[in-house]
From TrEMBL:
One of its GO terms (cellular component) is cytoplasm. InterPro entries: AAA+_ATPase, AAA_lid_NorR, CheY-like_superfamily, Homeodomain-like_sf, HTH_Fis, P-loop_NTPase, Sig_transdc_resp-reg_receiver, Sigma_54_int. Keywords: Activator, ATP-binding, Cytoplasm, DNA-binding, Nitrogen fixation, Nucleotide-binding, Phosphoprotein, Repressor, Transcription, Transcription regulation, Two-component regulatory system. Member of the two-component regulatory system NtrB/NtrC, which controls expression of the nitrogen-regulated (ntr) genes in response to nitrogen limitation. Phosphorylated NtrC binds directly to DNA and stimulates the formation of open promoter-sigma54-RNA polymerase complexes. The modification 4-aspartylphosphate is found at D54. SMART domains: AAA (SM00382), REC (SM00448). It is found in: Cytoplasm. Residues 5-119 form the Response regulatory domain. Pfam families: AAA_lid_14 (PF25601), HTH_8 (PF02954), Response_reg (PF00072), Sigma54_activat (PF00158). SUPFAM superfamilies: CheY-like, Homeodomain-like, P-loop containing nucleoside triphosphate hydrolases. The lineage of its organism: Bacteria, Pseudomonadati, Pseudomonadota, Alphaproteobacteria, Hyphomicrobiales. The gene is ntrC. GO terms for biological process: regulation of DNA-templated transcription; regulation of nitrogen utilization. Residues 139-367 form the Sigma-54 factor interaction domain. This is DNA-binding transcriptional regulator NtrC.
């Protein structure tokens, strides 16, 4: 049976009662209060083995109180809970020494589990990061999916771990990478982004590692590479799935040995950079196709972080729209209001371009429409005329009336064209099935808001079968309410 005294602070008496009952049933001795002053008095006199506190208290903000508590009781674990649910709330909780941050509402079983881990962990001082105290960061949203991202980022800030960010185009992968840098331990160093898809294949190694004078035709002088430019800071490798195999081999060697040589150089150069990679591709399929190194994947995928597409966090649309409206107003465009009907139409849209598409729409509305209030018909007209992601010039995207079978046949025709003089790598049957199965399960889970029982019924499979496939395909399931 667990034991320990918990100091609980929340100005909502009903919440205190519920938490008190749950923790008492778990075997803990709980003392609760609705005031920060009482919590401070208990902690200062040595009471309690753990603190659970809300951020907003009637007499003092918990973020102002935490540093004082950590100064007199540095090993006392503190769990912060808040209904504010912003990225900066999670970061400030971490910066001020909190053991864990829980956005309200949260699962009581999760709270009890966190309390158990906190009380059983080895005690040690928690270093404070001195993170800038501001809200000027473009990570917006309070949905459960984004709360998981915020909590993961807060845990990663004091580390130098390599992070792999995955997500569809337009979900904000570079913004997350910048947040990890700007609020992490390397924020005083440079942040150097490199888009692998934008660099010609024969120049990638020179771009990353630099080159010596005369290393190749046109190399008239020595040039520093992105690794050298990012020394002491963060190197963000965007679209890592487009890196050619030769460069992958050299990058792997850098990650293994912590040093590199310039193109045409002979002297190894030590490197001290944090690597953050990002991709909108399924690198496991790329590995099976023989176009991405498995050993490099495991080196980069130390901490995987999946950004949800906008259609999985439609409840964040009002906050995102307000954010972009304020942003374009600062840039000199007129301020707009989005009425209820228009907002509901935005929530029903699938957003193939994700947050980037939404930002572009808000800019277009501010620039082209004279009326102050944007109505449903305006949004309907804009979304109906918006270019589809699969109908770009030169694409072989789907056409009206195309069936799934026809789309698969078209995809396979394009795929075989990549191997004009040979055959694709073995295992094509299972690769294709996996490629179809992942999006199918993901769409069913998104449609049922993460409810696996309903998703299994929708798909016509056993619930245990669905759970196994979710685990095997490494799908992230986020349970949300309508």
């Amino acid at each position: 049976m667990p034991s320990g005294q918990i100091l609980l602070a929340d100005d909502d008496a009903a919440i205190r009662t519920v938490l008190n009952q749950a923790l008492s049933r778990a075997g803990y001795d709980v003392r609760s209060t609705g005031h920060a002053a009482t919590l401070w008095r208990w902690a200062a006199q040595g009471d309690g083995d753990l603190i659970i506190t809300d951020v907003v208290m009637p007499d003092e903000n918990a973020f102002d109180l935490l540093p004082r508590i950590k100064k007199v009781r540095p090993e006392l674990p503190i769990i912060v809970m808040s209904a504010q649910n912003t990225f900066m709330t999670a970061i400030r909780a971490s910066e001020r020494g909190a053991y864990e941050y829980l956005p309200k509402p949260f699962d009581l079983k999760e709270l009890v589990a966190i309390v158990g881990r906190a009380l059983s962990r080895p005690r040690g001082n928690v270093a404070q990061n001195g993170i800038p105290d501001n809200e000027d960061i473009p990570l917006v949203g309070r949905s459960p999916a984004m709360q998981e991202i915020y909590r993961a980022l807060a845990r990663l800030m004091p580390t130098d771990l390599t992070v792999m960010i995955t997500g569809e185009s337009g979900t904000g992968k570079e913004l997350v990478a910048r947040a990890l840098h700007d609020y992490g331990k390397r924020r005083k160093g440079p942040f150097v982004p490199v888009n692998m898809a934008a660099i010609p294949r024969d120049l990638i190694e020179s771009e990353l590692f630099g080159h010596e004078k005369g290393a190749f035709t046109g190399a008239l002088q020595r040039s520093s590479g992105r690794f050298e430019q990012a020394e002491g800071g963060t190197l963000f490798l965007d679209e890592i799935g487009d890196m050619p195999m030769e460069a992958q081999t050299r990058l792997l060697r850098v990650l293994q040995q912590g040093e590199y040589t310039t193109v045409g150089g002979r002297v190894p150069i030590k490197t001290n950079v944090r690597i953050i990679a990002a991709t909108n591709k399924d690198l496991r399929i790329s590995i099976q196709s023989g176009i991405f190194r498995e050993d490099l994947f495991f080196r980069l995928n130390v901490v995987p972080l999946r950004l949800p597409p906008l259609r999985e966090r439609s409840e964040d649309l009002p906050d995102l729209v307000r954010h972009f409206v304020a942003l374009v107003e600062k840039e000199g465009l007129p301020r707009k209001q989005i009425d209820t009907e228009a907002m509901e139409r935005l929530k029903r849209y699938r957003w193939p371009g994700n947050v980037r598409e939404l930002e572009n729409l808000v800019r277009r509305l501010a620039a082209l429409y004279p009326q102050e209030t944007i109505t449903g018909p305006i949004i309907e007209a804009e979304l109906d005329t918006a270019p589809r992601a699969d109908s770009a010039p030169g694409s072989t995207g789907p056409v009206d009336g195309e069936t799934l079978s026809m789309a698969v046949e078209r995809h396979l025709t394009d795929y075989f064209k990549r191997f004009p003089n040979t055959l694709p790598p073995p295992g094509l049957y299972h690769r294709i099935l996996r490629e179809i199965e992942g999006p199918l399960l993901g769409a069913a889970l998104a449609a049922t808001r993460g409810n696996q029982i309903r998703a299994a019924e929708l798909l016509g499979v056993n619930r245990n079968t669905l759970r196994k496939k979710v685990r095997d395909l490494d799908l992230q399931v986020v349970r949300t309410s309508r």
